[in-house]
């Protein structure tokens, strides 16, 4: 990064590659995705699910440690990037509630 680079985000993003399960309010069933990064205010994930901007999701990232509960949150879809028709979509989410 350039020496004069100034971070514009309120919270630092951490790379996190893990499975995520989610339910969309406008769909039935549970969908799967793969997290790309996460911060205190949101996350990005890859998924094949058909989602739309503004849609609300209930997310669960399972814990890998028996003493820790899974991460659960509600989030709104902010942006969907589809770089190739055969590739998973990259979905940007903003957390509205963390359980």
TrEMBL record:
Coiled coil location: none
Chain ranges of the PilZ domain: 7-97
A GO term, aspect molecular function: cyclic-di-GMP binding
InterPro entries tied to this protein: PilZ_domain (IPR009875)
UniProt name for this protein: Putative glycosyltransferase
UniProt xrefs under SUPFAM superfamilies: PilZ domain-like (SSF141371)
Keywords: Transferase
């Amino acid at each position: 990064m350039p020496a004069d680079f100034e971070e514009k985000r309120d919270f630092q993003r951490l790379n996190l590659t893990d499975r995520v399960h989610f339910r969309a309010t406008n769909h039935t069933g549970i969908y799967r995705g793969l997290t790309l990064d996460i911060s205190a205010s949101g996350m990005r994930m890859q998924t094949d699910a058909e989602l739309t901007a503004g849609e609300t999701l209930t997310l669960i990232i399972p814990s890998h440690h028996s003493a820790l509960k899974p991460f659960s949150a509600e989030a709104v879809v902010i942006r969907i990037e589809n770089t190739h028709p055969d590739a998973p979509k990259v979905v940007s989410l903003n957390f509205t509630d963390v359980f």
